[in-house]
Amino acid sequence: MDERIIDLPKIIDVRGNLSFIEENNHIPFKIKRVYWIYDVPGGEKRGGHAYKENKEFIVALSGSFDVILDNGKERKTYSLNRSYYGLYVPNGIWREMGNFSTNSLALVLSSTRYDKSDYVYDYRCFLEFVK
Ligand code: TYD
């Protein structure tokens, strides 16, 4: 899998720390969309799909959650719990998110605008897609 954890700049300051993300610099794509997931009730899961084209970068701005990635051959779980690094998820990877802590906030940067037809919602179709 070509996914990876990317460490972000961290400007440590007694007034409070600061991190930032520049497109095509810290992350390997141009940002077309930003969304965030919040107020997730305990035990709920998100995701359960893959994107044909869209690439994403996921940061736990607050709290913690797990991102489970599957390329059709292997499955890996990443626990995100700090705002100074994130997980780069290339297209063509099945993605689930769960184990959200209370008040967690997941920031997601995307390489495409929202496009329903870019989703693969069926796991068997996904396996065909990555074959
Ligand atoms: P979805 O991507 O399935 O959420 P998740 O992967 O976190 O489970 O999106 C949930 C709903 O929100 C779906 O009806 C589409 C809508 N949506 C948008 O309209 N724009 C967006 O940028 C996103 C990410 C979702």
Quick recap:
6% of the residues lie in helices and 43% in strands. It has 131 residues and is mostly beta strands.
CATH class: Mainly Beta
Number of helices: 1
**What is the mean predicted local confidence, pLDDT?**
97
**Oligomeric category:** single chain
DSSP strand count: 12
Strand arrangement, major sheet: 1-9-6-11-4
Rg: 15 Å
Task: Spell out the CATH superfamily.
Answer: Jelly Rolls
Return the CATH architecture: Sandwich
Shape annotation: globular
Distance between the termini: 14 Å
Q: How does the major sheet shape up?
A: 5 strands, antiparallel
Could you say how many structural domains there are in total?
1
Describe the structure.
With 131 residues, the protein is mostly beta strands. It has one domain (4-130): Jelly Rolls (Sandwich). It is built from one helix and twelve strands, in the order ββββββββββββα. Strands 1-9-6-11-4 form a five-stranded antiparallel sheet, with no helix packed on it. It has a five-stranded antiparallel sheet with strand order 8-7-10-5-12. The mean pLDDT is 97. Bound molecules: thymidine-5'-diphosphate (TYD). Thymidine-5'-diphosphate (TYD) binds at residues 33, 35, 37, 46-47, 114.
Which features does this protein show?
131 residues; 5-stranded antiparallel sheet; binds thymidine-5'-diphosphate; mainly beta; globular; 1 helix; Jelly Rolls
SSE inventory with pairings:
Layout: E1 4-7, E2 10-11, E3 18-19, E4 33-37, E5 46-51, E6 56-62, E7 65-70, E8 75-80, E9 85-89, E10 94-98, E11 105-110, E12 119-120, H1 123-130
Antiparallel strand pairs: 1-9, 2-3, 4-11, 5-10, 5-12, 6-9, 6-11, 7-8, 7-10
The structure holds thymidine-5'-diphosphate.
